[in-house]
Design a protein that fits this description.
mainly alpha
């Protein structure tokens, strides 16, 4: 079970603690794990998950996605007047992941070691730049 961000980071990058209105740490942790799995599903085309090292860009994407998912459980509904920023940030994070998957965005990460049958998923900087 991979988790690329902590609950404290969820409060920093996703939404303030008060926004979660008493949701338990188990729900928040599950949202972070699910968001991390979603990240893995997008990066899998270029990197071998789970990542062993990653930056704040990955943490931010996980937190934006997890915040939306957790708040939906609480009853978040932008059509009923809830802050539309939460949905917009979620959608931006997913769009960013699509860019990573397509090779338009390059992560500074350390992927898991590939098995011999998988080959290497590490892309060297010189190859990305075309030289």
């Amino acid at each position: 079970m991979t988790q690329y961000a902590t609950i404290a980071e969820l409060y920093t990058y996703g939404a303030p603690a008060v926004a979660f209105g008493g949701l338990g740490t188990d729900i928040l942790t599950n949202a972070l794990v699910a968001a991390s799995a979603l990240v893995d599903s997008y990066i899998r085309s270029r990197y071998t998950p789970p990542l062993t090292a990653w930056g704040s860009d990955v943490k931010q994407a996980v937190c934006k996605i997890a915040a939306y998912e957790a708040l939906v459980i609480r009853g978040y509904n932008p059509a009923a007047g809830s802050d539309p920023n939460i949905l917009a940030r979620h959608d931006a994070a997913v769009a960013w992941l699509r860019g990573v998957s397509r090779g338009e965005i390059h992560l500074d990460v350390t992927p898991a070691l590939a098995t011999p049958s998988q080959g290497s998923a590490v892309v060297s900087a010189s190859r990305r730049r075309g030289w």
